[in-house]
Amino acid sequence: MSNYKKAYIAGGCFWGMEDLFRTRPGIVGTEVGYQGGQNEDPTYKNHPGHAEGIEITYDPNETSFREILDYFFRMHNPTTVDQQGNDMGSSYRSAIFFQNEEEKEVAQEMIAIVNDSKKWPGKVVTTLEPFVPFWPAEDYHQDYLVKNPNGYTCHFLRFEESYI
């Protein structure tokens, strides 16, 4: 029996986020999907209010929620409202779906650290949203950049140096 944990974040197109997180130490699984919207069983064509996000399964003996958020804040621009790269709209918002008060506190601390770093020209606009059901995206979205190595992504590591 494992003691794996899950983290839920959104930061633009889910393909790029998944591709970067999949190879991180301590990450044992990723799944792309929709979260935080108005309908059940959302699809790519019908996900009003949902963010494109990822479910990250991780081993807390190898990485932490704080380290996941540190990487999250280095691989997308958390200062743009409802936009990453060419993708615009609330589906592409930066969000952390916290599951408990401890995760919320860690997220608030990380936002303060990122803001204090002055690495970005603006303030962090990442929303902190209480956990709501995560709906896996269609199969063709899962591992998309593995299946389509030249596919579109707006995600890349912007800062090598950790915030923490």
Automatic annotation (TrEMBL):
A UniProt-annotated Pfam family: PMSR
Keyword Nucleus in annotation: no
Active site: C13
Keywords: Oxidoreductase
Domain (Peptide methionine sulphoxide reductase MsrA) ranges: 6-154
Keyword Oxidoreductase (UniProt): yes
Single GO MF descriptor: L-methionine:thioredoxin-disulfide S-oxidoreductase activity
Enzyme class: oxidoreductase
This enzyme's EC code(s): 1.8.4.11
Transmembrane segment boundaries: none
Domain of life assignment: Bacteria
Catalytic activity: [thioredoxin]-disulfide + L-methionine + H2O = L-methionine (S)-S-oxide + [thioredoxin]-dithiol; L-methionyl-[protein] + [thioredoxin]-disulfide + H2O = L-methionyl-(S)-S-oxide-[protein] + [thioredoxin]-dithiol
Family: Belongs to the MsrA Met sulfoxide reductase family.
Described purpose of this protein according to its UniProt entry: Has an important function as a repair enzyme for proteins that have been inactivated by oxidation. Catalyzes the reversible oxidation-reduction of methionine sulfoxide in proteins to methionine.
UniProt-listed HAMAP family: MsrA
Name of the protein described by the UniProt record: Peptide methionine sulfoxide reductase MsrA
Organism encoding this protein: Algoriphagus antarcticus
